[in-house]
Write a structure and sequence with these properties.
Distance between the termini: 48 Å
Number of helices: 4
Largest sheet: 10 strands, mixed
Helix content: 10-25%
Order of helices and strands: HHEEHEEEEEEEEEEEEEEEEEEEEEEEEH
CATH architecture of the largest domain: 3 Solenoid
Shape: globular
Number of domains: 2
Structural class: alpha/beta
Length: about 280
């Protein structure tokens, strides 16, 4: 059987109540380990772009959930501290051969996370199970890359950036940051939002499907996506409760304004070359 078939079979048996953490067999454990290895090697991923749209790979997300459901919580060691989890941390002895470096004291890569070649992962930061970080990407200090989040190549995640995790429902696509994107410090991307390639997002911008994106290029109001090659920043627009008696001077809600990138703006690859020089 293929890995996909093994995971699907294990999922159905778990749903039917035939297997749980206490009754999982050695073969079941081997399937879970092979699944995590495939995630780390980049052979499988939790979302793919199909016909121009990002879609979840449901069986992969089910495999991540099975690794929580069919494992016992165990005491583990990290940095001289005992913690308790169902998953260990990811081994990092493969990173140097691919030109990737992670600094000490808090670069936490959870088992089942993929980190590409020529990446930099600064401490403290956290990359969760199922997440995929593409080649040449910088994960800066105090960043979180949530479960199943998909980050493209040559991306800059500014300090204190959060990419939310989307595990359930399994048919929902996770957060996606496409190649060449630069997210300023303190950005938040949640709930399956897609940041289009080569965009530059200003510091402290919240990107979530509940916040409208006023795209001045297409002259549309969008939800859940920032189109490619945009410069985006937060502004406040009048709220529907703006004339309520409780709000002296009007009420406002956050929105994102998206504009064309200026021709002289450095792309993410150029910025990374400057940072690394």
């Amino acid at each position: 059987m293929s890995l996909e078939a093994d995971v699907r079979d294990l999922w159905h048996r778990h749903e039917d109540g035939d297997v749980d953490a206490a009754s999982a067999s050695a073969d079941d454990a081997d399937t879970l380990e092979a699944f995590l290895d495939a995630l780390e090697d980049g052979d499988i991923r939790a979302a793919e772009k199909r016909d121009g749209e990002w879609e979840a790979v449901e069986w992969v997300k089910r495999g991540v959930l099975l690794n929580f459901a069919l494992r016992e919580t165990e005491p583990r060691e990290y940095g001289g501290v005992t913690y308790h989890d169902v998953l260990p941390l990811r081994r990092t002895d493969d990173l140097a051969a691919r030109g990737t470096r992670n600094t000490p004291d808090g670069t936490v890569l959870r088992r089942g996370s993929h980190v590409g070649a020529d990446c930099i992962v600064m401490s403290p930061s956290f990359v969760n199970v199922g997440a995929r970080v593409g080649d040449g990407t910088l994960v800066d200090s105090c960043d979180t890359v949530g479960s199943c989040a998909q980050v493209g190549e040559n991306v800059k995640l500014g300090a204190n950036t959060l990419l939310g995790g989307v595990l359930e429902p399994v048919e929902d696509a996770p957060v996606v940051v496409e190649s060449g994107v630069s997210l300023g410090a303190g950005c938040r991307v949640t709930s399956g939002f897609v940041v289009g390639r080569d965009s530059v997002v200003a510091e402290n911008t919240l990107l979530t499907p509940r916040v409208p994106v006023y795209d001045l290029v297409s002259e549309e109001i969008l939800y859940g996506e920032l189109p490619p090659e945009r410069r985006a920043f937060t502004r406040f627009v009048e709220s529907s409760v703006g004339e309520h008696d409780l709000f002296d001077g009007g009420a406002y809600k956050p929105a994102v304004v998206a504009m064309d990138l200026e021709a002289e703006t450095l792309d993410a690859t150029q910025r990374e070359e400057v940072l690394r020089s």
